[in-house]
């Protein structure tokens, strides 16, 4: 835990709605070392964004509620921090990039002002100095500083996302959370933005949590990968481990669903069925109704996360049994 | 090669905007052979969706001819056009906004049957069930409304509605872009099965290159209203010739550690197709642009086999 | 027919095989959950019943308009629940007869406005271009005149009677409805399902009736309920300045106006009709807001 910058332990988040309680995050554990990049992969409704918002304590309440868990950032439990302390952390030590660059910028402020705002608040610089720093940040993300007086609508989608990145990095955060930062962008622009993010991450030695549904992006930017399903992390491994030897049937299913560019596949092998209803999660392993390898016990017993070697964590009964029978020998 | 079911010749679609004339589709010519899939790829704003709509005459072409099964689509009157709609259908990108929220699943699928008198009134219910079965929708969903269903199921409704008229040709406009990967794979498989079973021809419009490679026989790459390259899917991915295609292919993040591609980063971003400058549309971002590219427009021509490209680099 | 079909047997979703429920029963179900809207609806129902059975409860000629100097300016009592006015008429009787007029004017005026304004707005929205421009600029001119002033002018020109009053108030709210319907049609028209309908060969008429109108209706219904409230207020206002329903027919606004000289020593004369107006309008607004939520099929919390 010493050199971990972030430690999330047994996090549980529920949303209470008219239709029932949505169990968005269910006992999630993540740890992240300084300078590391973690890819948080999963489909819509897996609880990726909720996890990210929990770290910043930005879960809308009501309907959302953090039921349980601890989030240690630099050794301090954020869930016990005061609102005042959180304000000092948000945008300063932890910053976030949202999916849609079109709506995350304020349309009536110039981009320079928007970048300078955070610098002024967190670094105690005066207006003029903050603006100078803002211009530097713009240059850093590849936008000429003369454009700091322009308004967001005068920028294209890719440029706006660069501005958002500049805002996020303006206070040298220790942790950057990027929620689908390139989903709204075209491929060629996505390539530019990812390239930029990789460069800047190295330059500032920032830790990063990259939320995405695209395994291709993970392969290009992350060191570690956590695969989420129905509010749980069902597999956690290094990039090499996950891509060379995916273990959980869901992870394997995800790989089978992606059309492969390298070889010709006649038919994709999709995961059957749909995401479970989050207000009424299946008993036992939440993935069992869709799992091709499900057994009778999967319907009853909930798997625990186990280490299958070299910190490759999997939450699946198939592996629990293997390790148990090995232990018996 | 089979005979072309669709032949598009020099179609153009311009929009009058306050800023000037927007060349959304600028002089496209291509064929689609019966029973095959032509993938139309490009980034946002390149005119690929407009092309699909012009072919179906949901938008009137500014110029050019569209021959479908030998008929000149643009010359048909209203009645003949309605008749032709039986043969040409469309599947939309957004499975939410493309379904009327006030109609139930059965009403949505039955509508084309009613409009065209496909089956007797008493048989409509049966035909709707059959179509739902074909696209893999459970019978019990027949009286639900679109907003009660997830994206994948909604997209299946859209497909069932398109299939109701037993079309020969379907324009699929980004049919899986709004879906999660696992659901996306289900829908792609469904579309392939339907193609085989019903001998369908697809014009598959998408920005996702991995999807287009998977489903298409041939691929046309569009940039700012023009097709810059067209070849068979295999050939295009093995041997891309146009600098834009090369950059596009290299930019795809590949979910694999063994094959890292060297990403070719393009300069700048897509320019606007409003009052485009003379010369090659891609010249401003091209890493190989020569003087000539800014003055003359490269001709779209066959280079080797069935591989067509519009680029001066091919003139060596 | 393929492995994907397995999807349909997926048991993890809650969607039960249910009987077909019509859209309207669905709207009613959602409306019932909204307590404030139901309160509005109950108040309105009582009001309508009172208005319908006004003759049974209190005879019009004998109680509502017959003057009786002996009992003038009395406060609420057993004989006169809400007291009497300066001419000795029973205020409760006058109020329930007044409810008839207020509700009728409200409903008829709004119907006129929806019919004319709605049609114009729908045409402008659907066809766009020049047609749109001509209709909407004309409406803008209309909007530039304060609606109460317009109503005064119409009543003044055509003469003071109940029909002209309804016409005046109806006409003055035409531009509002035209704008709402146009905006609503414009958003619906650009939705992909309209394009989808065109792609399966639906005619313009079918598209308008089956696809555009049902989806454009919600804001009109909401605005309609609020419009009734506005119309009742306008009637009261016109009556107050003496341009409303001719005397001696009881009308809430006129009652307010008549009672204002006696505000100091017989405030009940103005209090009760005033309360009636406030409660009716509140009820209509509550119902209108409730309908707005209930009519949106996508609004599921």
Topology overview:
The complex is a heterotrimer of chains A (329), B (316) and C (301).
Chain A: E1 4-17, E2 20-33, E3 37-41, H1 48-55, E4 64-73, E5 76-77, H2 83-89, E6 94-97, H3 111-123, H4 127-140, H5 157-169, E7 175-179, H6 187-204, E8 207-212, H7 215-221, E9 224-229, E10 232-238, H8 239-244, H9 249-257, E11 306-307, E12 313-314, H10 317-328
Chain B: E1 4-17, E2 20-33, E3 37-41, H1 48-55, E4 63-68, E5 71-72, H2 78-84, E6 88-91, H3 105-115, H4 124-134, H5 151-163, E7 169-173, H6 181-198, E8 201-206, H7 209-215, E9 218-223, E10 226-232, H8 233-238, H9 243-251, E11 301-304, E12 307-309
Helix pairs in contact in B: 3-4, 3-5, 5-6
Chain C: H1 23-32, H2 35-52, H3 54-57, H4 60-65, H5 91-127, H6 129-144, H7 147-158, H8 162-172, H9 174-189, H10 192-199, H11 204-240, H12 252-259, H13 268-294
Helix pairs in contact in C: 1-13, 2-5, 2-13, 5-6, 5-8, 5-9, 5-11, 6-9, 7-8, 9-11, 10-11, 11-12, 11-13, 12-13
For the largest sheet of chain B, list the strands in their spatial order.
Answer: 6-7-8-3-9-10-12-11
Main sheet characteristics of chain A: 8 strands, mixed
- Strand percentage of chain A, roughly? 15-25%
As for the number of domains of chain A, it is 1
- Level-2 CATH architecture of the largest domain in chain B: 3-Layer(aba) Sandwich
Task: Please provide the ordered H/E string of secondary-structure elements of chain B.
Answer: EEEHEEHEHHHEHEHEEHHEE
Oligomer: heterotrimer
- The name CATH uses for the topology of the largest domain in chain B is Rossmann fold
CATH class of the largest domain in chain B: Alpha Beta
Helix vs. strand class of chain A: alpha/beta
The helix/strand series of chain A, from N terminus to C terminus, equals EEEHEEHEHHHEHEHEEHHEEH
What fraction, in percent, of the residue positions of chain B are helical?
25-40%
Please give the alpha-carbon distance between the first and last residues of chain A.
Answer: 33 Å
Identify the CATH architecture of chain A: 3-Layer(aba) Sandwich
Over the alpha carbons, how many angstroms does the gyration radius of chain A reach? 21 Å
InterPro entries (chain B): AAA+_ATPase (IPR003593), ABC_transp_ATP-bind (IPR050319), ABC_transporter-like_ATP-bd (IPR003439), Oligopep_ABC_C (IPR013563), P-loop_NTPase (IPR027417)
Family (chain B): Belongs to the ABC transporter superfamily.
Protein name (chain B): ATP-binding cassette domain-containing protein
Keywords (chain B): ATP-binding, Nucleotide-binding, Transport
């Amino acid at each position: 835990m010493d050199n971990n910058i972030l430690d999330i332990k047994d996090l549980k988040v529920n949303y209470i709605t008219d239709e029932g309680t949505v169990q968005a995050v269910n006992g999630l554990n993540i740890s992240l070392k300084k300078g590391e990049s973690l890819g948080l992969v999963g489909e819509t409704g897996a609880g990726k964004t909720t996890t990210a918002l929990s770290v910043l304590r930005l879960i809308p309440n009501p309907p959302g509620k953090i039921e349980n868990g601890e989030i240690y950032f630099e050794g301090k439990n954020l869930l016990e921090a005061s609102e005042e302390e959180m304000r000092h952390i948000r945008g300063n030590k932890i910053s976030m990039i949202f999916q849609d660059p079109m709506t995350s910028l304020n349309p009536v402020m110039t981009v320079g002002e928007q970048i300078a705002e955070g610098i002024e608040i967190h670094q105690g610089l005066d207006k003029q100095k903050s603006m100078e720093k803002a211009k530097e940040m713009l240059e850093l993300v590849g936008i000429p500083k003369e454009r700091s007086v322009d308004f967001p609508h005068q920028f294209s989608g890719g440029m706006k996302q660069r501005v958002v990145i500049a805002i996020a990095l303006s206070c040298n955060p220790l942790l950057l959370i990027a929620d689908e930062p390139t989903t709204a962008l075209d491929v060629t622009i996505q390539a530019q933005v990812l390239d930029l993010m990789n460069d800047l991450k190295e330059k500032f030695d920032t830790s990063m949590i990259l939320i995405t549904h695209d395994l291709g992006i993970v392969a290009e930017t992350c060191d570690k990968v956590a695969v989420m399903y129905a509010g749980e992390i069902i597999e956690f491994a290094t990039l090499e481990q996950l891509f060379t030897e995916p273990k959980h049937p869901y992870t394997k299913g995800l790989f089978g669903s992606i059309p492969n560019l390298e070889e010709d596949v006649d038919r994709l092998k999709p995961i059957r069925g749909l995401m479970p209803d989050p207000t009424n999660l299946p008993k036992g392993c939440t993935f069992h109704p869709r799992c091709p390898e499900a057994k009778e016990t999967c319907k009853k017993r909930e798997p625990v996360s186990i280490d299958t070697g070299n910190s490759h964590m999997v939450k699946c009964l198939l592996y629990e049994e293997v390790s148990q029978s090995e232990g018996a020998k | 090669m089979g005979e072309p079911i669709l032949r598009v010749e020099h179609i153009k679609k311009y929009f009058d905007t306050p800023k000037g004339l927007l060349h959304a589709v600028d002089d496209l010519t291509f064929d689609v052979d019966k029973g095959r899939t032509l993938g139309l790829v490009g980034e946002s704003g390149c005119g690929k969706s407009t092309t699909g709509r012009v072919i179906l005459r949901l938008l009137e072409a500014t110029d050019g001819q569209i021959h479908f099964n030998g008929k000149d689509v643009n010359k048909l009157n209203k009645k003949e056009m309605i008749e032709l709609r039986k043969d040409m259908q469309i599947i939309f990108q957004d499975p939410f906004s493309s379904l009327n929220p006030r109609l139930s699943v059965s009403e949505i699928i039955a509508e084309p049957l009613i409009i065209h008198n496909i089956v007797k009134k008493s048989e409509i219910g049966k035909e709707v069930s059959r179509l739902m079965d074909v696209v893999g929708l459970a019978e019990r969903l027949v009286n639900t409304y679109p907003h009660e269903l997830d994206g994948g199921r909604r997209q299946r409704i859209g497909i069932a509605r398109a299939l109701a008229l037993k079309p020969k040709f379907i324009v699929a406009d980004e049919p899986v872009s709004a879906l999660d990967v696992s659901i996306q794979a289900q829908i792609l498989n469904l579309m392939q099965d339907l193609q085989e079973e019903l001998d369908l021809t697809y014009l598959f419009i998408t920005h996702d290159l991995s999807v287009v490679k998977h489903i298409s026989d041939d691929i046309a790459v569009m940039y700012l209203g023009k097709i810059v390259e067209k070849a068979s899917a295999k050939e295009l991915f093995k041997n891309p010739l146009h600098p834009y295609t090369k950059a596009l292919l290299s930019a795809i993040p590949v979910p694999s550690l063994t094959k890292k591609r060297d990403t070719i980063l393009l300069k700048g971003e897509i320019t606007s197709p409003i009052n485009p400058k003379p010369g090659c549309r891609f010249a401003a971002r091209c890493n190989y642009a020569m003087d000539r590219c800014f003055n003359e427009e490269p001709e779209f021509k066959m280079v080797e086999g069935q591989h067509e490209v519009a680029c001066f680099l091919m003139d060596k | 027919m393929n492995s994907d079909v397995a999807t349909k047997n997926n048991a993890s979703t809650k969607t039960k095989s249910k009987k077909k429920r019509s859209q309207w029963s669905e709207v009613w179900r959602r409306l019932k959950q909204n307590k404030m809207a139901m309160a509005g609806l109950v108040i309105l129902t009582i009001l309508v019943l009172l208005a319908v059975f006004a003759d049974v409860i209190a005879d019009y000629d004998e109680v509502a308009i017959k003057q009786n100097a002996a009992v003038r300016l009395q406060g609420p009592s057993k004989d006169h629940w809400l007291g009497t006015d300066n001419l000795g008429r029973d205020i409760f009787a006058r109020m329930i007869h007044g409810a008839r007029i207020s509700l009728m004017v409200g409903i008829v005026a709004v119907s006129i406005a929806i019919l004319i304004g709605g049609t114009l707005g729908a045409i402008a929205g659907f066809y766009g271009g020049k047609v749109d421009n001509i209709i909407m600029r004309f409406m803008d001119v209309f909007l530039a005149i304060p609606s109460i002033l317009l109503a005064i002018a119409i009543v003044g020109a055509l003469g003071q009677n109940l029909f002209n009053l309804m016409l005046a108030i109806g006409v003055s709210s035409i531009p509002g409805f035209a704008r709402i319907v146009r905006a609503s049609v414009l958003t619906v028209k650009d939705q992909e399902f309209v394009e989808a309908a065109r792609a399966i060969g639906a005619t313009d008429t079918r598209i308008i009736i089956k696809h555009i109108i049902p989806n454009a209706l919600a804001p009109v219904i909401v605005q309609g309920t609020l419009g009734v409230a506005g119309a009742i207020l306008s009637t009261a206002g016109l009556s107050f300045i003496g341009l409303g329903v001719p005397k001696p027919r009881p009308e809430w606004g006129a009652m307010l106006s008549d009672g204002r000289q006696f505000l100091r020593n017989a405030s009940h004369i103005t209090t009760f009709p005033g309360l009636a107006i406030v409660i009716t309008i509140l009820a209509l607004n509550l119902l209108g807001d409730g309908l707005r939520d209930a009519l949106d099929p996508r609004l599921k919390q």
